[in-house]
Automatic annotation (TrEMBL), chain A:
Residues 52-109, 346-398 form the Nitrite/Sulfite reductase ferredoxin-like domain. It comes from Roseospira goensis. Its cofactor is siroheme; [4Fe-4S] cluster. Its EC number is 1.8.1.2. Signal peptide: none annotated. GO terms for cellular component: sulfite reductase complex (NADPH). This is Sulfite reductase (NADPH) hemoprotein beta-component. One of its GO terms (biological process) is sulfate assimilation. Pfam families: NIR_SIR, NIR_SIR_ferr. SUPFAM superfamilies: Nitrite and sulphite reductase 4Fe-4S domain-like, Nitrite/Sulfite reductase N-terminal domain-like. One of its GO terms (molecular function) is sulfite reductase (NADPH) activity. Residues 119-272, 410-546 form the Nitrite/sulphite reductase 4Fe-4S domain. Keywords: 4Fe-4S, Iron, Iron-sulfur, Metal-binding, Oxidoreductase.
UniProtKB/TrEMBL annotation, chain B:
This is DUF2849 domain-containing protein. InterPro entries: DUF2849. It comes from the Bacteria.
C-alpha cells in the first residue's frame, strides 16, 4: 500500500491545523456560515438532516487494517458506533458535531487519511477496481496510476475551483468493475501493438439529472503522457465549462454541447503545449510508486475457488464461497467479498465492532489489506483458499457472512431521506423491504447476477441509471414514489436503463420488482443473466408485469 | 429562508444547532427546542416575518444555522392538544429522526484462532 512521504503528511497535518482554526473562528462568530460553508465542505463536512456528516476519502478504495481500526474508533468515539461505505469507495459518518470535526481529522491524519476533496468543485477521490492487483484478467494494477492521479490532483491550484465537481475512475482490466463509462473521466488500461500499457481515455460520462455514457476521446494514451493529457482535458473544461448554471456545469454538458470532435480538437491543441513537459511521469517515478503496490509474499499453493466450493464440508459454506469468493490471479488464493447487505442492515453500513473484526481478519488472512467496493461491500483481497472455512465462520458470527454478493439482495442504496438533506424519498427502507422479499439465498442464487440500485433523488448517488433494475425516489405532492428503470449496466457494456411505467409507492415497487424477477425466470434462456434477458427481449415483457400489478 | 407557504397556514421556525447540527424549533419562550411539539406556531405572514427577524439574532450569535419556516398540521393542534406535527415526510423525519433501526454496535465474537 502507498505510504505517505513527509510532503503528504505535512500537507495533511497543516490542513488539520487550518481547519481547527476555521472551526474555532466559526464558533466564535468571526466567520459567518456563508464564509465557513465552503471551508467545511473542502474538508468533507456536510450539514445533513439531523447532524453534520463527515465524508472521509479512501483513495481508490484501499484500506490498511490500521486505517480500518481508526475508522472503527472514530465511529465509536465521535459517532453512534457505525459508518456508511459509499458508492464512491469512501466512508461517511452521520452523527458528527462541528466542535469535534477537527479532532477526527487529526485522528485520521495519524493513519494517513483525510477528508480532502470529498466535496466541492474539485477533482474528487479517484475510484478504481476493488480487485486491483489480484484480478486474473488485469493488465496492470491501476492503483499505481490512481495514486499518481491522487498526488497530481490534491490541492491542484488550477483545479480547485472547477465549474463543478469532477470524478475520475480507473480500471486495469477488460472487465469494468469501476464503472469508468459513467465518470467525468474514465480510464481503461490497454496494451498497444508493442505490448506497452496505456489508457483509453473516456470523457463526459456521468449520472445525475442528465445521465450520459462517456465517449472515448483517445483510444490510447501511453502511461508516461497520461497526466499531461488529463491536464489538457481539465484546462479545456475549466475554460469552457459553464459556471452560470450548476445543472449545466458538468463536463458531460460541455462535451455534448460542442460535440466530442470539437472537444477532442481543443484538448489535442492544449496537449501539444503540455506533453513532453514535467507532467510526463518518468519510468523511475512510476516504478517508485509501483513499489508501494508490490504484491505480498504469497505462498506457493494450488487449487481454485470452484474446487474450494465443491470440496466445502458444509453446504452453507459452499454457497458463500460460490457467491462471495472470486478467482484470484495467484493459485490457491481467492478474493473474498464481504457483503454489507445483510437482512435489515442498511446497505453499506458497518458497526465499529465489525470494522475492528475486519481489521483483525485482514491482518490474519489477507496481508493486512481491505478494499471498499462501489457496490458498498468490502473485500479481503489475498486469502488462502485453505483459510476460507475459518474466515467464513468468523464473518458469519459477526453478521458479515451473507452469501449474496452480486445477487438480487446485494442492493446499492444511497442514504436517502432518512439522512440526506437533498433527498426526495427514502432509499434504505425500500432496500430493506426488497432484501426481505429476496431473503431466500437458494432462490437468490437461482436468480443469479442482478444489480438493484436505489437513489433517493435525481443526484443518483446510488447510480440507479445503471442498475439492472434502477429505482429513483421522487416526491409527488409530499408522497414518496419510486420510478423504476430496466436494463442499465455499469460494466464494459455500460448502458442507461429505460423507464418502465409511472412511479409507484414503495410497496408496489417491491411487488413490481418481484414480478420482473418472475418474468425473467419464466423467459430466460440457458445461461442468461437478468441483464442478458432484458437486452434480448427489451422491456415489453416486463411491462406486462407492470400492468398485472396495477 | 422562508419558502412560499400559504399566507394563513400555521407555521413554525426551525433550524439546526450550529454546534452539533441537531434539528431545533423556536419556542414561545424564545429558546430552541429539539421537540417540534414545543414549537411556537404562528399563523400570519407578518407574525412569521417578525419571528424570523428575532431568530436571525441567534444565527448572528452562532447558536443556529439554516433558518427555515415550515408548515405544520393544524388538526393535530386542535384535536390532540399536543403541539404541532409535521406535514411532509421530510419534516417528520427531521423531527423524529431516521425511520429505520440504526445499526447497533454490539460486541462481535473474535475467533480464538486470531492471535
Ligand atoms: S441520491 Fe440524492 S438522496 Fe441519495 S444521497 Fe445522493 S443526494 Fe442524497
Amino acid at each position: 500500500m502507498y505510504q505517505y512521504d513527509t510532503h503528504d503528511q505535512t500537507l495533511v497535518d497543516q490542513r488539520v491545523a487550518q481547519f481547527r482554526d476555521q472551526v474555532a473562528r466559526r464558533l466564535s462568530g468571526a466567520l459567518t456560515e456563508e464564509q465557513f460553508k465552503p471551508l467545511r465542505l473542502m474538508n468533507g463536512l456536510y450539514l445533513q438532516l439531523h447532524a453534520y456528516m463527515l465524508r472521509v476519502a479512501i483513495p481508490y478504495g484501499t484500506l490498511s487494517a490500521a486505517q480500518m481500526r481508526m475508522l472503527a474508533q472514530i465511529a465509536r468515539r465521535y459517532d453512534r458506533g457505525y459508518g456508511h461505505f459509499t458508492t464512491r469507495q469512501n466512508i461517511q459518518f452521520n452523527w458528527i458535531t462541528l466542535a469535534e470535526a477537527p479532532d477526527i481529522l487529526a485522528d485520521l491524519s495519524r493513519v494517513q487519511m483525510h477528508a480532502l476533496q470529498t466535496s466541492g468543485n474539485c477533482i474528487r477521490n479517484v475510484t478504481s477496481d476493488p480487485w486491483a492487483g489480484v484480478a486474473p484478467d488485469e493488465i496492470e494494477d491501476p492503483r499505481i496510476t490512481a495514486e499518481i492521479l491522487r498526488q497530481w490532483s490534491t490541492l491542484h491550484p488550477e483545479f480547485s475551483y472547477l465549474p463543478r465537481k469532477f470524478k475520475i475512475a480507473i480500471t486495469g482490466a477488460p472487465s469494468d468493475r469501476a464503472a469508468v463509462r459513467v465518470h467525468d473521466i474514465g480510464l481503461r488500461m490497454h496494451r498497444d501493438d508493442r505490448g506497452e500499457a496505456g489508457y483509453e481515455v473516456i470523457v463526459g460520462g456521468g449520472l445525475g439529472r442528465t445521465p450520459v455514457i462517456g465517449k472515448t476521446i483517445r483510444p490510447f494514451v501511453p502511461k508516461r503522457h497520461l497526466l499531461s493529457y488529463l491536464e489538457a482535458i481539465m484546462r479545456v473544461y475549466n475554460s469552457f465549462g459553464r459556471r452560470d448554471n450548476m445543472y449545466k456545469a458538468r463536463i458531460k454538458i460541455l462535451v455534448d454541447a460542442i460535440g466530442i470532435t470539437e472537444f477532442r480538437d481543443l484538448v489535442e491543441a492544449e496537449w501539444t503545449t503540455l506533453r513532453e513537459t514535467e507532467l510526463d511521469v518518468a519510468p523511475e517515478t512510476y516504478a517508485a510508486i509501483a513499489a508501494h503496490f508490490a504484491p505480498p509474499a504469497y505462498e506457493a499453493l494450488t487449487g481454485t475457488v470452484a474446487e474450494a466450493a465443491d470440496g466445502a464440508s458444509d453446504a452453507v459454506l459452499a454457497r458463500w464461497i460460490r457467491a462471495n469468493v472470486a478467482p484470484h490471479r495467484v493459485p490457491g488464493h481467492g478474493i473474498v467479498n464481504v457483503s454489507l447487505k445483510g437482512t435489515d442492515q442498511p446497505p453499506g453500513d458497518a458497526t465499529a465492532s465489525q470494522m475492528d473484526l475486519l481489521a483483525d481478519l485482514a491482518e490474519h488472512y489477507s496481508h493486512g489489506e481491505i478494499r471498499v467496493t462501489h457496490e458498498q461491500n468490502l473485500v479481503l483481497p489475498h486469502v488462502r483458499l485453505s483459510d476460507l472455512p475459518a474466515l467464513w465462520a468468523a464473518l458469519e458470527a459477526a453478521g458479515l457472512g451473507t452469501p449474496n454478493v452480486g445477487l438480487v439482495s446485494d442492493i446499492i442504496a444511497c442514504p436517502g431521506l432518512d439522512y440526506c438533506a437533498l433527498a426526495n424519498a427514502r432509499s434504505i427502507p425500500l432496500a430493506q423491504a426488497l432484501t426481505r422479499r429476496f431473503a431466500d439465498m437458494d432462490r437468490a442464487q437461482e436468480i443469479g447476477e442482478l444489480h438493484i440500485n436505489i437513489s433517493g433523488c435525481i443526484n443518483a448517488c446510488a447510480h440507479h441509471h445503471v442498475g439492472h433494475i434502477g429505482i429513483l425516489g421522487v416526491d409527488r405532492h409530499g408522497e414518496e414514489l419510486y420510478q423504476v428503470t430496466l436494463g442499465g449496466r455499469s460494466d464494459e457494456q455500460a448502458a442507461l436503463g429505460k423507464v418502465v411505467g409511472p412511479a409507484v409507492p414503495a410497496d408496489r415497487a417491491v411487488d413490481l420488482i418481484a414480478g420482473f424477477v418472475d418474468t425473467y425466470l419464466a423467459i430466460r434462456q440457458p445461461g442468461e443473466r437478468f441483464i442478458d434477458t432484458v437486452a434480448r427481449v427489451g422491456t415489453t415483457p416486463f411491462k406486462e408485469t407492470l400492468h398485472a400489478a396495477a | 429562508m422562508a419558502r412560499k407557504l400559504r399566507a394563513d397556514a400555521p407555521r413554525v421556525v426551525t433550524a439546526n444547532r450550529l454546534l452539533d447540527g441537531v434539528v431545533v424549533y423556536r419556542t414561545a419562550a424564545g429558546t430552541w427546542s429539539p421537540h417540534l411539539a414545543r414549537a411556537l406556531v404562528v399563523g400570519s405572514d407578518p407574525a412569521v416575518e417578525a419571528l424570523l427577524a428575532v431568530c436571525e439574532r441567534d444565527v448572528a450569535g452562532c447558536e443556529v444555522v439554516g433558518l427555515d419556516v415550515i408548515e405544520v398540521r393544524p388538526d393535530a393542534l386542535a384535536a390532540r392538544g399536543d403541539g404541532p406535527r409535521a406535514i411532509t415526510q421530510r419534516e417528520a423525519i427531521r423531527a423524529t429522526g431516521p425511520t429505520i433501526a440504526l445499526p447497533v454496535d454490539r460486541p462481535v465474537t473474535r475467533p480464538a484462532s486470531l492471535p
